[in-house]
Amino acid sequence: xxxxxxxxxxxPSFLFFPVFFFALLTSVLASYFNYWIGISFLLLILSFGLSxxxxxxxxxxxxxxxxxxxxxxxxxxxxAYTAEDFYYIGFFVISFAVFSQLAISQITYAYKxxxxxxxxxxxxxxxxxxxxxxYLINSGLRSNTIFATPNSFAAAxxxxxxxxxxxxxxxxxxxxGYLAMLIxxxxxxxxxxxxxxxxxxxxxxxxxxxxxxxxxKIKQNNIKVLFGLTSMVLIFLxxxxxxxxxxxxxxxxxxxxxxxxxxxxxxxxxxLVLYDVAWQRIKEKPFLGHGYNNFQFxxxxxxxxxxxxxHTNFVHNDYxxxxxxxxVLGFLGITSIIVTFYYRIWRYFKNIKLRNMSIALxxxxxxxxxxxxxxxxxxxxxxxxxxxxxxxxxxxxxxLSETDKNICLVTNxxxxxxxxxxxxxxxxxxxxxxxxxxxxxxxxxxxxFDYAKKNMEKGNVEIALKYYELTRRFAPYNADYYAIEGExxxxxxxxxxxxxxxxxHRADELFVNGISSNPFDIRNILSRAxxxxxxxxxxxxxxxxxxxxxxxxxxxxxRPSLFLAQTEYIKTLIIFGQTTKAKENLNKYMKINPDVDxxxxxxxxxxx
Length: 608
Fold this sequence. Notes:
This protein has 26 helices and no strands. By secondary structure, the chain is mostly helical. It has two domains: 4-245 and 263-423, no CATH class; 441-606, Serine Threonine Protein Phosphatase 5, Tetratricopeptide repeat. α7 runs antiparallel to α15 and α24 runs parallel beside α26 (597-606). The chain starts with a helix and ends with a helix. 44% of the residues are buried.
């Protein structure tokens, strides 16, 4: 007979697979479908797969406060809409809510599923590293499997690896778990991630500090684990000495040299440039911040040579980025989670008898590695890592709630909240359905947009315009949809003989709505400036030349190194008869980028 515990553990297990699978897919396939399906299955688990009541503890209060700060910033401070922001925060909050209400047996079941998935990824990593094939995103000699970067892959491996290490430290005769630990550690080595290695050492040392504090007698297991990990390092080094990678060695990534400058290299000097841009902006708005996930706009504005036209969304220091985006409250929020976790886990290990020693030890190692890696990378933003962060904190809440039962902070208020029927299935299902519908809207907009685009390319303009309008209804704050439709109409003006005035008016209206939906968006401003410059005669309300030039200057204020904006600005100056100013700006741009074909052609046109 199957025990009730095993039945309960297996009940939501089939739902965890699509959650993990689609969260992993978001790293390389950024379709909103992957985000929506992953978060929908997570909500289904929240509705039907929970076994425990939510426990209010010091840590859960800190996480809830941080979540409220994130959501508040997203709705009231962040003026630039991107659907990914809602999915990132959704994965974090819902994952925390789910894992904080799962039984320990269910958490263990979900973790085993993750181990199997990552063992498959580890095999893929070995193939990438030693053969050079099957890269979805080229990373030189470093393995990244399904992740966008080797560093993200390394951070994910650490989160899966430390529970295995903790289990092997506390248990004997567990060959499958020991073998899985060695395979995942070797996969970590193939990433050649300095941040991943250093964060692993931080997590490993943190576990030993706890074990030393409790004077645990694990000498035999400790030697076994250290021997296995050291053996993997020696095998890895031997593979380099014996040249297992063959002719790929000449492309080897050197941990102490610059790599991929154009993609924002991981070299320390580049990080300092990113940190400086973030810090200068933090000093402008230290309390409220500049809005969640908005660093990309300020980087494009403030970047200096040799980083012109380089793109990044991240400061590569999550604590600095949270301060930049969410202000002091965001920085204090994540700090309170870290401080509360270590304070409560330290008190937890003071107990003589612990029911979940291995799990608590895994939490120390995994979260320590995660917090350390966040100092030098962006581990608090990739979807899968955000999901795992929420899962770790939820599991920590389950474990630490045993020692927080007599929580004294606003005791009466907490007790009253705890007595509410939050576990009522009706409310769970109602809220989950509501969220699933809302999270589906970006994906529906994506579908209707693709259908409209195909019809526009086939010449079915009326059908395309109807679906463009439907797209905007599902994603009214996505500035790109306004810009793309408006640009199609602007291009149509070149071939239109009748109805040009209506087309021009509609395009202008779309650009105006796009500008109002996202103040950082320059695509709509640039397109509107070109529209008014080239088709002023058929616009019902054309603007004067000075305003058009101000629009171009506004675009160049936010994107000073954008070639298209620079060339169109110079063309506009020539059209408006300001050739002297056009020459001055062209000389300025050519000093930085002398070989750009558009600049060379404009120089010939101006005759100098």
